[in-house]
Structures are given as C-alpha cells and as structure tokens.
Design goal:
A five-stranded mixed sheet has the order 5-4-3-8-9. A two-stranded antiparallel sheet has the order 1-2. Strands 6-7 form a two-stranded antiparallel sheet. The relative contact order is 0.23. It has 158 residues and is an alpha/beta fold. Strand 6 and strand 7 form a beta hairpin. Helices cover 30% and strands 28% of the residues. The protein is built from six helices and nine strands, in the order E-E-H-E-H-H-E-H-E-H-E-E-E-E-H.
Length: 158
C-alpha cells in the first residue's frame, strides 16, 4: 500500500557517502524536522540530472529559509549517489540518500518496475513533505512525467 498524507514515515536505514559509507535512519532524517524528500528513478539519468536534482540545488536556500531540510533518494548505492551529488555541485546540507536494495522505497509503496529498461526495481519520481516524520504532502509523478515533484512545484504547494 502506498504511503498517504497523515502516515508516519516507516523506520528504515539508508546510506550516504561522508568519509566513507555511513548509515542513517529515517528517524535521524525526519524526527523533529521539516523535510522535503524527493525521489528520482536513478542518479545520472537524463531528467534526474538535467531537471530534478538541479531544481532542488537552485532552490536549496529557499527551502532552508523556510526551515525545511532537503533530501534526495534513489535506489542506487551510496557511492553512486555521492558521485552524482558531487558532479551536480549539490550543497553540503542536501542529503544524497542511497536506498541500495529499495527496501525503504518498497516500504513506502512507491517502487516501480524498470526491468524493461535494464534498471530493475526503482523508486517512482515523487516528492513528499514531512513534519516530524508525518507526511503532510505527497506529489507522485505519472509515468514519464516531471511536473508535480519539481522544486518549484513543491515550493508553490508549501
């Protein structure tokens, strides 16, 4: 079942690259914080690299001014997410989260089957806004679209 507005973010352990691979729990990410988490089907893929991540980088300071932390997640490993963030000049505070096996993505019910494209099971393109771990807004893209989960769309909806 797909996570809904009003639901609590499930407990999971993700990874990020900081002086090596570091585990981080969803409690550490969301507890007592306002967070926008956006998901991309894959690091270094066309729309993700040309539009999705760059939009959040461009508007990162606006999210911070509003007291909102920003995290990007993909079903990729921490090394790929770290390299992608570096190649895109992601600011230090923008968390580049790896859900390597897709367990968190599946717990949210936001996985998609991209095996036809040689990518296996991936996360759908979405953005969610959570306050203290409770989902307050959820913007899931239709297949092949990039509209409702952009940084601009999320800022306008907040």
């Amino acid at each position: 079942m797909t996570i809904q507005i009003g639901d609590t973010i499930p407990e999971a352990t993700l990874n990020l690259l900081r002086d090596g691979v570091q585990a981080i729990t969803t409690s550490e990410i969301f507890k007592g914080k306002r967070v926008v988490l956006f998901s991309v089907p894959g690091a270094f893929t066309p729309t993700c690299s040309a539009k999705h991540l760059p939009g959040y980088i461009e508007h990162f300071e606006e999210f911070q001014r509003r007291g909102i932390e920003v995290a990007c997640i993909a079903v990729n490993d921490a090394f790929v997410m770290g390299a992608w963030g570096k190649s895109q000049s992601a600011p230090e505070g923008l968390l580049m989260l790896a859900d390597g096996n897709g367990a968190f993505t599946q717990a949210l019910g936001l996985e998609m089957d991209a095996t036809a494209f040689g990518m296996g099971i991936r996360g759908k393109r979405y953005a969610l806004y959570a306050d203290d771990g409770v989902v307050k807004a959820l913007h899931v893209e239709a297949p092949g679209e990039f509209k409702v989960s952009s940084a601009e769309a999320v800022l306008a909806a907040l």
